[in-house]
Amino acid sequence: MLAKQTPAIKDFYNTGSKRTYSASPIAETVTNGFFTVDRKWTVKYWNNAAEKILRVQAKDIVGKNLWKKFAEIIPIELYAIDQEVFQKDTPVHFREYWGEMGAWFDVITYHCDNTLSVSFKSSNHPNTEYSKDPVQRLKQLNELYRLCTEITNDCLWEWNLLTKEIFWIDGGHKRVFGYQVEDAIVPQSFWEQCIHPDDKLRVFAGLKKIIAQGSPSIWEEEYRFKSADGSYQYVHDRGRIIYDEKNKAVRMIGATQDITEKVLLEKKLTQERLTKQREITDAVLTAQENEREAIGTELSENMSQLLVVIKWNVQMAKTDKNKREICLENSAEYLDQVITEVREMYKKLSVPDIRVIGLFDNINSLIQDLNNAHPIKFDFFNEGIDEEEDLEHNLQIDILRIVQEQLNNIIKHANATLATIRLTRKANEIILAISDNGKGCKISKEKKGVGIINIKSRTELYGGRVLIKSKPGKGYELKVVIPCYHTEL
Question: What is the 3-class SS of the chain, one letter each residue?
């Protein structure tokens, strides 16, 4: 158990909403002498222990040069060591015998922000007034401890496993869960009834198992704990089990931490990830269905009709000698159209061979085909990008797929006469911008489209983002920004 609450500590906790801390600064309660100096060796701070060990009052040394004051006391070797420390950023520890003081000194000195700090102990002065008075020292530590627990959401406890009693230390359970209990014993059964019914069996089974191990162990569990208002909060319990000489668990000391915000945030993020994944999956499946439907339509409306015509011409050539030559010529011509259609379908469906042709050549080939087949004029520009250095293989494929997706959207929906593709690098970002001078749209409606969801899902694989700028009648711009991790040496 911790020491009983002193009147001073009670006053600290009974000051209402404004908390006060009447104890001395930490540096004034430690047993070490401590002082700081600047680069000119002017003393900036001198604690109580330093006054007693070196027999110099702070008022007589602060603001004065250290070496002038102690020229005949401090050995010159210490000056060399401290001068060296001023050039380092890590603490230096050493022991030195000061003949004038008749004692060994244990010293730690370090440099920070142009200030040299020195902490030291003397074999002749092992204690200060606080360590000589253990009650006063305990009071200082207890008050400091309680000040720290006041600003945390940890609830400390000590559990007597033999009497089945739990001592709720300090006011943690009052502060966090609203129970009007402070430095008091509660029965184990009360704690048990506060555990959410769905978590009880798991918590008890885990506790029983860890206790049965029969060796110093840490019990750790997360569960839901009921507050005074009846609501449940997520908590993380962690305690050390203490065994007696017969290796029997007798006590456990630990802390309960409220992790509700953390758990709820994790649940929210998980739900958002699941929702996003469902959106991506739905978009992929919808795209696949649309693609299959488009292929089916093309097969049914174009190639099937061509094949029927070819079959009719072949049959006619077999039965009518006079029309055989013209029918065979027609069949050959129609077969060329079928071959062209199949090639076009293959180009749409197959994964482009980026390693052989390259991203830029693939895009140029794509817009050349589109310019030959559609009234829209397509242009492509690239600037500041090295295909091999800046764009790894999969990223090149995904950029090409994004371009294909967006150009298909422009052809189907934009009513545009001009479309431009720009691929550039600015600092450590790859920027793909595809714009057209078509009819535009409302952004809120566009964001729900299957095409844009597909584009976003590909972009997010690389930690990128998609930006859309459009208004009805004002054209459309799609901007894809992807981090580029390659930098110049």
Answer: CCCCCCHHHHHHHCCCCCCCCCCCCHHHHCCCEEEEEECCCEEEEECHHHHHHHCCCHHHHCCCEHHHHCCCCCCHHHHHHHHHHCCCCCCEEEEEEECCCCEEEEEEEEEECCEEEEEEEECCECCCHHHHCHHHHHHHHHHHHHHHHHCCCEEEEEEECCCCEEEECCCHHHHHHCCCCCCEEEEHHHHHHHECHHHHHHHHHHHHHHHHCCCCEEEEEEEEEECCCCCEEEEEEEEEEEECCCCCEEEEEEEEEECHHHHHHHHHHHHHHHHHHHHHHHHHHHHHHHHHHHHHHHHHHHHHHHHHHHHHHHHHHHHCHHHHHHHHHHHHHHHHHHHHHHHHHHHHHCCCCHHHHCHHHHHHHHHHHHHHHCCCEEEEEEECCCHHHHCCHHHHHHHHHHHHHHHHHHHHHHCCCEEEEEEEEECCEEEEEEEECCCCCCHHHHCCCHHHHHHHHHHHCCCCEEEEEECCCCCEEEEEEEECCCCCC
The pLDDT tens digits for 174-232 are: 889 988 877 778 888 889 989 999 999 999 999 998 888 876 688 999 999 999 999 99
More confident residue, 86 or 265: 265
